[in-house]
Amino acid sequence: MFDTQQMPSSTGSAAVAAHTAAPFSPALLSPDLLERIGVSSLTSADAGVLPVPPPLASLFPGGGLRRGSTITVSRSPSLVLALVAPVSRRPGWCAEVGSPLLGSAAAAEAGVVLERFVRVAEPGVQWATVVASLLEAFDLVVVHPPARASQGDMRRLTARARERSAVLLVAGEWEGASVGLAVTRQCWHGLGAGHGFLQTREVEVQSLGRGAAARPQRVRVWLPGVGGSVSAARESAA
Amino acid sequence: MAAWRGWLGVGGARERCIRALIGDVESNRAAVRTLAVWCPDWPVIAAGGSVEQPGAVLQGGRIFACSAAARLDGVRRGQRRRDAQSRCPELTVYLHDPSRDARLFEPVAESVEALIPGIEIVRPGLIVVAARGAARYYKGELPLLARVAATVAGETGRDVQVGLADGIFTATRAAYSAQIVPPGESAVFLAPQPVRALDRPELADLLVRLGVRTLGAFAALPRADVLARFGPDAAYAHDLAGGFEARPPSARGAPPDLTVEMSLDPPVDRVDTATFAAKALAERLHERLAARGLACIRISIEARTESGEQLSRSWRHGGISTAGFAASAIADRTRWQLDGWLSGTIRAHDGRPASGLTFLRLVPDEVVSDAGRQLSLWGNDSSGVDDIERIERAVARVQGLLGPDAVATAVVGGGRELLDRVRLVSWGEPRAVLPGDSCPWPGQLPSPSPASVLVVSRPAVVAAVDESPVEVDGRLAVSAPPRWLRIDQRPSVEIVGWAGPWPLDVRWWDEHALRRRARFQIATADGTGWLLVFDGGHWLVEAVYD
Question: Which CATH class is domain A2-180?
Answer without folding.
Answer: alpha beta
